[in-house]
Amino acid sequence: MDTWLRDNSLFLAVTLAVVAGVLLVLTLLFLVLWLRSSRRRRNLDFDRIDAEDEVTDLEIALQEQLSRLRIVRELHEVAVHSVSVIISQADGARYTASADPSAAARSAATIAETARATLADLRRVMTVVREGEADASPQPRLKSARELFKAMRDAGLVLTFVESGDRFELQRGAELAVYRILQEALSNALKYGGEGTEVKVSFTWTEEGLQLLVDDDGVRAEARRQGLDPNAVAQKRSYTFEEDLNALTDVITGPGMTEMRERAELFGGIFNAYAVPGVGFSVSAVFPALRYDNGVHGVKLER
Predict the structure, then answer these.
(1) With contact defined as beta carbons under 8 Å apart, do 290 and 268 qualify?
(2) Rounded distance, CA 46 to CA 29, Å?
(3) Please, are residues 72 and 128 in contact by the beta-carbon 8 Å criterion?
(4) Minimum mean pLDDT range among 28-37, 155-164, 226-235
């Protein structure tokens, strides 16, 4: 009897020790998990606060830029009206100079006064513009396209770049237009094609022009992500002549497409975007005479 009691007591003691050990381990585990969760929540809170502060700063900066733009637009309208007055007075003075010299003198005085006021308004416009440029980040250059390519590769694109012809220096506005078209085309390839999309960027320089071409295989990339063979998928899926024709003739719309098209047209370029059935998407911007183009149609800036 005593032996049975001792054995049971020993067994009970061991069981209690094991249970206590398990409870201790579980307690420590829950404590570690709670601490990690608390730290993660704190980090998320800090990130959220930083993001909210950044959004607030961006909203303030946007409102400031919009205010400057409104001022510039209003002063521009005033300047345009003043120039029309100057032209009207000058025409009147020219026609009345021989018949009424005093009227021509009065017109000349009005022209001088209006011109001074217009010049003052234009100087105010330039002051507002310079303030806006000082607040804005520096505009990108084509030479920084390598950084753009690196960022897109890091984001998941498989990107290759091919350049042919002799590169020439562009006007700053034209250079910015080309860069923004390239940036938007690559962003769309990543957004709609997804990670692993293969993109080929081509720059073809002529004596005075440039052709930008961005081809992606977003459709094939989607098949690869699903573990399928893109060639086998293309063979199973037959494409009709009508589908091919629609892909070439349909006008792709959207804010990004509209902006790229307008940037190209501003510098005499021809923009085209179309889907390639079974492959992906292509964007092209052809600038026949970009070397001296400053965005003012019909004005060629000789160097």
Answers:
(1) yes
(2) 26
(3) yes
(4) 226-235
**Largest Cα–Cα distance of the chain, in whole Å?**
145
Q: Which residue stretches of the chain are H helix?
A: 2-96, 101-135, 145-155, 172-188, 218-225, 230-236, 241-249, 255-266
Compute CA distances 10 → 13, 23, 24, whole Å: 5, 20, 21
Residue 154 in contact with residue 186, Cβ under 8 Å?
no
Q: How far apart are CA 280 and CA 193, in angstroms?
A: 8
R_g over Cα of the chain: 34
Q: Is there a contact between 199 and 159 (Cβ–Cβ < 8 Å)?
A: yes
pTM > 0.70:
no
Question: What is the predicted pLDDT for the residue at 215?
Answer: 95
Neighbours of 303 (CB within 10 A): 6
Mean pLDDT of the chain: 76
Q: How far is CA 256 from CA 184, 188, 260, 262, in A?
A: 7, 9, 6, 10
Q: Which of 34-43, 104-113, 199-208, 286-295 has the highest mean pLDDT?
A: 199-208
CB burial string 102-120: b at 16+ within 10 A, e below: eebeebeebbeebeeebee
Token representation of residue 20:
């206590």
**What percentage of the chain carries pLDDT values higher than 70?**
67
Residue 96, both tokens: 């009345």
